[in-house]
Amino acid sequence: MEMTETNLNNLVTKSNKLIEANYKLGVVEQKIILYLASNIQPNDSDFKTYTLPIKEFTNLLGLKGHPKYKELRQITKELMQKVFEIRINKKVVQVSWLSFVAYNETEGTIDLRFDPFLRPYLLQLKKEFTSYKLENVVKLKSSYSIRIYELLKQYEKFHERTFLLQDLKSMLGAEGIYPAYGNFKQRVLLPAQKELNKKTDISFEIEEIKVGRRVRKVCFRITSRKKNTDKPLTYIEENFREGSTKTNSFSIYAKKLALNMGFQLTDEILAKWEKYGGDRIITLLEKIQGRHDIDNPIGYITSILKYNVKNTELESSTKEQPILEHLISTFRKSKEKLPYWFIQEKAIEEIQQQFQMNFQEAQVQFEKIKVPLCEYLNIKDSRVERLNEDDEKKKKELEERLKKYKVDDNIFGA
Question: HSE of 369 in the Cβ direction (CA atoms, 13 Å)?
Answer without folding.
Answer: 26
